[in-house]
Design brief:
- The chain is mainly α.
- It folds into 2 domains: about 60 residues, no CATH class; about 60 residues, no CATH class.
- Helices cover about 55% and strands about 5% of the residues.
- It has 6 helices and 2 strands, in the order αββααααα.
- It has a two-stranded antiparallel ribbon.
- α5 packs across α6.
- The longest helix is centred in the last third of the chain and has 18 residues.
- It is globular, with a radius of gyration of 16 Å.
Amino acid sequence: QSLKTWKQAIERSDTRLTVVFGTKGGRPRETVILDTIAVRKALDNALAIAESRHGRLIDKPDLKSAMDYWHNQAARIGLTGAYSPHSLRYAWAQDAISHYLAQGFNRKEALAIVAMDLGHGDGRGRYVAQVYGQI
């Protein structure tokens, strides 16, 4: 539902995207754009797919059935192990920590920001350090 909004954000050269739909607990969050070119390409591909599926990437009646479908399709095409969705989230979190450190944030600040990017809230920096922060 947010693909067009995200595309507009990229076109404005925004550095963050607002995630509203499909978030844990329904809590909106913002996440940093680490690679604008890759995000633009992914959005272009996603918009083309959504056009043929009633405006949705996954044309299912509710979030649970869409997530089930997504997980099954990811496994079917081999997104398992090091390439599983959670492993990709882990890799993104590590890249984001490095990005924030390079921007001049100290480690505690970088972990707090990544916690928010991941939808955990800023008080979960220690959790992010334990789970994602082994860089």
